[in-house]
Write a structure and sequence with these properties.
Layout: E1 4-9, H1 13-28, E2 32-38, E3 48-49, E4 52-56, H2 58-62, E5 69-72, H3 77-89, E6 93-94, E7 97-98, E8 103-104, E9 108-110, E10 115-116, E11 121-122, E12 126-128, E13 133-134, E14 139-140, E15 145-146, E16 151-152, E17 157-158, E18 163-164, E19 169-170, E20 175-176, E21 181-182, E22 187-188, E23 193-194, E24 202-205, E25 210-214
Parallel strand pairs: 1-2, 1-5, 2-4, 5-6, 7-10, 8-11, 9-12, 10-13, 11-14, 12-15, 13-16, 14-17, 15-18, 16-19, 18-21, 19-22, 20-23, 22-24
Antiparallel strand pairs: 3-4, 24-25
């Protein structure tokens, strides 16, 4: 198996968790040469985080994009999209980071830059877009569609035939009945139970989930 050189974009808490995904994969079969972190926070430049250096910002990748790929570990959906668009301008390769404990059938379609953390289960005929984050112990049922830049926090349960639009953010422990949709760039609060469609650009919370405000 070829060894790919990779950097993690975002040196925060989730970036450190993604580092552990790559290390877990390498314990099974060495596939990754993790060079370090990329972060736009200049105060982090030159620091060593959990044994790996902060190499620089996006500018660093401009000079190394021909032989280094990346994964974007920025937790906020909107900020992740902004950074990814900068990275796309320099034509860098995006890799997926999938923990070896993930259970996933062969009938799951994955985009680029996808991160799937330990303990998650994806069943069959699922479509996952680009730069989606699926955190610890999430479950995703058959025929679900999760579009670009979505974030599923730990313990989220997406049911069969659910559809999450672009940039949807699901709080810890949110759950869904089957066949519902959430519009682009909406947020579902922690512990909410979604039993009907949620429109775009809103925040919905509670059991059952109700729209509480419209995003500006």
């Amino acid at each position: 198996m070829p060894v790919n050189s990779v950097v993690i974009v975002g040196a925060g808490g989730f970036g450190r968790e993604v580092l552990e995904i790559f290390k877990a994969q390498n314990r099974i079969s060495v596939a990754w040469d993790v060079l370090g972190f990329i972060d736009e926070d200049e105060s982090l430049r030159g620091k060593v985080i959990n044994g790996y250096p902060v190499l620089g910002g996006v500018e660093w990748l401009k000079h190394h994009s021909s032989n280094v790929g990346c994964v974007c570990a920025i937790g906020t959906c909107e900020a992740r999209k902004q950074v990814v668009e900068k990275l796309q301008e320099i034509d860098v390769d995006f890799y997926n980071a999938i923990h070896p404990s993930v259970v996933m059938s062969e009938f799951v379609e994955l985009g680029k830059g996808v991160i799937i953390c330990a303990g998650s289960i994806l069943t069959v005929n699922i479509k996952i877009g680009n730069h989606v984050h699926i955190n610890l112990n999430c479950t995703i049922g058959h025929d679900a569609i999760i579009e670009d830049y979505c974030t599923l926090n730990p313990g989220v349960a997406v049911n069969g035939r659910d559809h999450l639009g672009e940039g949807v953010y699901l709080g810890t422990g949110a759950s869904f009945i089957q066949g519902v949709s959430v519009g682009n760039w909406s947020t579902i609060g922690a512990g909410a139970v979604v039993i009907e469609d949620i429109p775009e650009n809103v925040v919905a919370v509670g059991v059952p989930a109700k729209v509480k405000k419209v995003k500006e």
